[in-house]
Amino acid sequence: MPLFGLYPPGLLETIFEEIGVGLVIVDHDGRVVFANQTTMEMFGVSRNGRERQFEDWRQMFRFEDPAGVEIPLSDSAVIRALKGEQVESEPARVTLQSGQTKWIRTWAYPFSAMGLDGVMALVRDETQEVELHRTAAQLQRMETLGALAAGLTHDFNNILNTISTNVALASDPKSPRDAVQARLDHISEASVKAAELVKRLTQFNRTQELHLRALRVNDVVRDVLRLVNPLLRDNVNLAVHLAGDLPPIYGDSSQLEQVFVNLIVNALDAMPDGGELTISTGRAPARGKMPQPGSAGEFVHVSVSDTGVGIPASIQTTIFEPFFTTKTEGKGTGLGLSSAYGIVRQHNGSIEVESAPGEGTTFRVLFPSVAGQSFESQSVA
């Protein structure tokens, strides 16, 4: 029997096979009544896998959220849609029976048409895109790390000078005991500062899966400002406006640091003759988007604004593409905004740009806030 009896046999099945994404139709009894060949290949199952209950089909695989936490059947997009919930696109990492892992994004829509009630799910394989963003993020992280290390050289040299000077003074046999102890204290303080600098650079350069926890975005911004402080030139005026009493967001602080560092470095590059750099945070409405599970129903934004050269409208839609850059050869890889976009998307956030030539640029990053979360780290797989 064709999927929809009112149409010629095989017509809609043929159309569904050609749409280029996985398509699964589950009836109101939870039975998989159709799955196109793209779905079968994506999940590595045979065609006879179509005729089964969705619950049995899904238990063949392990689904995890971006934090590595397993997504139970009851929280799957299809089951939630069958219950009448409106389900936005959901990213997930799925482990196949072969042990292979893939990144997918699922949309699920309840429907009732031509005698069939159920849910239509669209599944897109984003594995290559995610891996590309990870590669771009690592390359950009290394490039930015080089810039940060160059900027921190001055601070590190000052620390070394402090240590060497105090060692020389403490080594003087004529120095009073109290003076020697004071020199040793200065050496200890300088050593702690040096260790903090090395630790910060090491954390910034780490590459691994997301480690998500409830965190305060203002704390992340403050850490970033300490990190980039050596890059701020005398002809750049920095203004910081951090809104108080912001709800927490769910994120990886190291990954978010990379996003904000990239945006600040770009802003500084856009102002070779100096200007105003403004960093701000605040609350933002959901703008018509459905809140994520556990969301407080609003977003938290971080904005980075400059008074630099601006971005022409003709290229604003392409600036997030990998390897796109307006910088001269040797000045950048064109991966900064691409890696930032990938990280923000993994956090279920969005990034906006407002700019005009000669009038500066504002990048606005939005993250869904979360309700009822503590600020303790959560261990993830």
Task: Tag the structure with descriptive keywords.
5-stranded mixed sheet, Beta-Lactamase, elongated, Heat Shock Protein 90, alpha+beta, 9 helices, 381 residues, single chain, disordered N terminus, 7-stranded antiparallel sheet, disordered C terminus
Describe the fold and architecture:
This protein is an alpha+beta fold and 381 residues long. The protein has 2 domains: 11-125, PAS domain (Beta-Lactamase, 2-Layer Sandwich), CATH 3.30.450; 130-370, Heat Shock Protein 90. It is built from 9 helices and 14 strands. It has helices at 11-17, 37-43, 54-58, 77-82, 127-170, 177-204, 217-228, 253-269, 336-346; strands at 22-27, 31-35, 52-53, 62-64, 87-95, 101-113, 116-125, 213-215, 236-242, 249-251, 275-284, 295-306, 350-355, 361-370. The strands form 3 sheets. The protein has a 7-stranded antiparallel β-sheet with strand order 3-2-1-7-6-5-4. A hairpin with a 2-residue loop joins strand 6 and strand 7. Helix 5 (127-170) runs antiparallel to helix 6, helix 7 (217-228) packs across helix 8 (253-269) and helix 8 packs antiparallel against helix 9 (336-346). The protein is elongated, with a radius of gyration of 26 Å. Residues 1-7, 288-295, 328-334 and 372-381 have low confidence and may be disordered.
